[in-house]
Amino acid sequence: MTRFPYVGYAGKYLRVNLTTGKIEALSLPIEWAENFLGGNGIGTKILWDEVPPQIDPLGPENKLIVATGPLCGGLMPNVSRVEFIAKSPLTGIYGDANAGGHFGPELKYAGYDLIIFEGRASSPVYLFICDDRVELRDAAHLWGKGCEDAEKTLQKENRDPELKTALIGQAGENLVRFAAITVSWRRHAARSGVGAVMGSKNLKAIAVRGTRGIRIADPEGHRAIALRLHDQIRKNDFFAGVHRFGTAGLVSLMQPMGRFPTKNFQHGSFDGFEKISGEALREDHLVRDVACCACPVGCDKVYSVTAGEFAGATTSSLEYETLNALGAGVMNRNLPALIHANILCDDWGLDTISAGRTISFAMELVEKGILSARECEGLDLSWGHYRTMNELLRRITFREGRLGNLLAEGAARAAEILGRGAARYAMHVKGQEIPSQDGRAQQSMGLAHVTSTRGADHLKAFPVLDETGYPSEAVRRYGDQYLPELVDPLATRYKAMLVKDGEDYGAVVDSSGNCKSGGTFVMAEVYWDDQADAIRTMTGMPIDAARLKTIGERIYNLQRCYNVLHGITCADDVLPWRFTQIPSPSGNAKGSVCHLDLMLPEYYALRGWDGTSGVPRDETLARLGIGDASARIRDAIVSGDAARIRGNLGWAAPYTDRAVDEL
Amino acid sequence: MECDGHSERSEESRKSLASDQSLKKEANLILHIHPTQCTDCRLCEIFCSLKQEGYVNPNLARIRIARDEARKLLAPIACPPCDEKKCIAACPEPGALVIAESLCTSCSKCIAACDIGAIRFLRQAGRGKNGKAVALKCNQCDGDPACVRVCEPKALQYVSDHVIATLSAATGKRSPKRESEIASSHELLLAISRGQQVFEQLRALLAEIEKDWTQRGGQPRRRIRSR
């Protein structure tokens, strides 16, 4: 194999077969880097090539890919992200999640761009990496431990408090379908149930220490670009706010828009929002500001509770999504209880979004009389009952009782198992619970939830220009030709373009190693040209914005193709009835519904996908250099394999029929 | 008392410092470290290693961030420098305020001497007097510290090293004083600089953090693993 020619990358990857215990350190294929960049892109390529669609996501045939990008660990602002890619146990289709913190850079400093885990260990193990030393070790003593305890134990037994880990808690061990992976220090790759994939492989943890560092192709050139971008981020007032409140600052911004999902999306604003706002958090609970690796913004915080029922609780990274899902979503206005719930989710390894949404789904089932008191197994599932919420988190994690075991499947599967019309209240897209936006209050987000390749998600497209409206940013990216509609949250015009561009750029960002919250999206101080310049000077790979755009589109199309193999079509590109048929009762969005019918056809056309099936056209794939995918998806559709696999995914498309209740 | 314990040796080192004008000049600017401002982003380590070593490797940075498990306590550790200069007292080669790699015999005495572990040890063939290893310490990037340049929360600042207090020889107590107010050469010998104040603050903070480290298997003042 040719030696990997680009610096900036570590240039090597690990293939770890957990069944046989074989570990190989291999040279990174040049085609992977040149065509798919890194992180998310290379992960997609590996999934497409090596993980067939018919396999069980929790079986040994699934693979877990842990991948960094070429910028990760370097000089650019917030280049800390590590990606976890697998066939998702929650959705059954393409799945990924990423996290910041300090694990990704450490993996690269150890000399590896990515790790592919295959097979299944016969008993719990963890992977230890210190530069050239790579060992699978017994993890029996770690099994059953929470994330915090397991991390401490690993550091202690390796006599290294600087050891960085990626590990699962009890939720991942118990194959909760929305289990997360926790990385040092206390950041989480939570969506798509990647933690359950790790659990299914009997892989408790990855522990890394790297002392090799990373070389840069053009140190002076790259340093100059990085410093310029650091300075731009520092000068932009927007980031001062992000630093002050973190994503929690969004609570007060989304409330008046009617974009703060409340009571399982029955409302778009919450009368108790002030109690769970970023301002309240900072005022009452802040210990200090912290940051992920190389991040000048620092949106992470350490919070603690000093008095009352939850006194002594300390947590970090309490995000907007969590404040909504475990707050307004379930009508909980007790902030210390919410902090405690966040700690439980972090330690047991649960995705707070899916966990919160699944609990609000259960609460609504009780409200609507679908779930009987007996089935609640002694719990009071009335809205806002925070002790019930925290107890349910425990029962879900340990799959305790029939209710806990049912909800551990996620809302969409639980609805399918229950029947009785429960599906009407499962607020999901493609099996994944909808995060804390509302397509009625921000049209582009509704579209983004639907077109995301990992099921309902805001971060694939992250269409933020029309969130509270950033005209100057819109002008910077597109000129003034699309104003005012582009920045109007209730307008549908140009939103397909905004979503498509966001997905393509997002795929590049997720493949490079930087973060979407710190300068690549809302205020894109780092945009196509800067990103291309940064990658070129970091790696020496000849790359410009045009080539980068093609790579982004290629990655996103290949993810869609992977989903097409699973029988995903237009029929799954839908939002639950509540978003398209019930006018929002709240805030600026009052009276508005999400007009997918207007935006989706435009989106398919822009993407070069067939308007009636949602399948990428042959010429689109050929243009992107992945023409050979055409034959494979055609075969899957014609042979009926795709439809068969779709039938076995375990969830039904969200309910879109007649409106069933008045609000 | 802490101050008394160190006063004799530090007086000595101050004497030698004052006698050498060039060294005194270098000591005019110090790294003023504000640990409460630090966010643990490690940009200081990353840019330091690039500047000093030509590539990114935080393990070889002349600054490092010490943290407890919950990241409630953070301490960027680098040589401010302090007044005590135990490292100089410990160094068998004369005149080292900035470590000259070609003179370093890798005896590691300075590393053991520094109370805050601001000096690291690198085992690498071809470096140091005996070609095997070398001690690494902040040299303030010859007047333009890379870490200060990238520290967004301003936990690191590069400022002049004012005398901020003098120590009473009789009582061992400090009294705040400006440099201009110092009357006699005797007082100058008892001066406590801002660098010393930073150093003492870091020493106290590090003692707290190391309690947590030990619980996680850490040894205070870790040495860099060899390659």
Task: Describe it.
The complex is a heterodimer of chains A (663) and B (227). Chain A has 26 helices and 17 strands. Chain A folds into three domains: 12-209, 4-Layer Sandwich (Aldehyde Ferredoxin Oxidoreductase,  A, domain 1); 242-426, Aldehyde Ferredoxin Oxidoreductase Protein, subunit A, domain 2; 439-647, Orthogonal Bundle (Aldehyde Ferredoxin Oxidoreductase Protein, subunit A, domain 3), CATH 1.10.599.10. The termini of chain A are far apart. Chain A has a six-stranded mixed beta sheet with strand order 2-1-6-3-4-5. In chain A, strands 8-7-12-9-10-11 form a six-stranded mixed beta sheet. The model of chain A has no long low-confidence stretch (mean pLDDT 96). Chain A is of the alpha+beta class and 663 residues long. Chain B has 227 residues and is an alpha+beta fold. Chain B has a domain at 2-83 and 140-215: Alpha-Beta Plaits. Helix content of chain B is 34%, strand content 16%. Chain B contains eight helices and nine strands. In chain B, the strands form four sheets. Chain B has a three-stranded antiparallel beta sheet with strand order 8-7-9. In chain B, strands 1-6 form a two-stranded antiparallel ribbon. A two-stranded antiparallel ribbon of chain B has the order 2-3. In chain B, a hairpin with a 6-residue loop joins strand 7 (163-167) and strand 8. The longest helix of chain B is centred in the last third of the chain and has 22 residues, at 194-215. Chain B is globular, with a radius of gyration of 17 Å. Mean pLDDT of chain B is 78; it is low at 1-27 and 222-227.
